[in-house]
Amino acid sequence: MTKPPIRNTRKRTDYTRRSKPAGAGDSGWIWGRHAVLAAVENQRREIRALHVTRNAARDLPGDTAHTMSEPDVIDRLLPPGAVHQGFAAEVSAIKPEPVNAVMDPTHGLVLVLDQITDPHNVGAILRSAAAFGVRAVVMQDRKAPPLFGTVCKSAVGAAERVAHVRVTNIADTILDMRKAGRFAIGLAGEGETDLAEAIAGPDNKGYGPGLVLVMGSEEKGIRPRVREACDVLARIPMSDKVESLNVSNAAAISLYEAAKWRPARSEAP
After folding, report:
1. I need a surface site. Which of 52, 155, 184, 197 has the fewest CB within 10 A?
2. pTM for this structure?
3. For 226-248, how does the pLDDT look when each residue is reduced to its tens digit (9 = 90+)?
4. Cβ atoms of 125 and 253 closer than 8 Å
5. Distance (Å, rounded) from C-alpha 176 to C-alpha 47?
């Protein structure tokens, strides 16, 4: 039975969505204990304002400049419903790595997100990417949420630890990676090859650190030209009791499968 592309069954309404390009702002707010503490430790982030409650301040490094604030004061700084756990920081944007820095197939697995816009999903994917040693996550510059807010909260600190690359054209980027010697697998429900077989390759030895995994958007999956740019389309075998997987769950499964064929990168990029 043919399955539809891996995608979300619905889109969440979220206050961190933006109609303008994701990279348009040079600063933004993040919140939550893990997200803020990771940002404080990240030398690539400039902390422009840091508000913590008295209890939360105990977790800060001793020399960290901060403002002691009551929880209701922090509430007013953030979007409605933000669960901040006593931590909120206005931070600079993290500068993306240049795409040429991740072209070399010996440098580690690359995960490509084709117009995945839900910040909860992007954050969860970044967390899985950190867990499985991904070299970098590639996103389209105008069709991906900024690394602030809900993305960082959902990533639980991983947004500070996984390199990201922003590109104008996803399909052209995949083709360039293939020319550089990488092998690109697109995840699609109608793929003719099971994911495990695709990653193992025809010689059952895997593609090592040169692998590229491509995940599609929440509603439409991988776009046609991006599909054509991949070496092969693969599916995650599932029962017919569900129509599709949430894209962040599909990413975690795919990264776990890929990790069987290479050592994970434990160091930060």
Report:
1. 197
2. 0.85
3. 999 999 999 999 888 777 789 99
4. no
5. 36
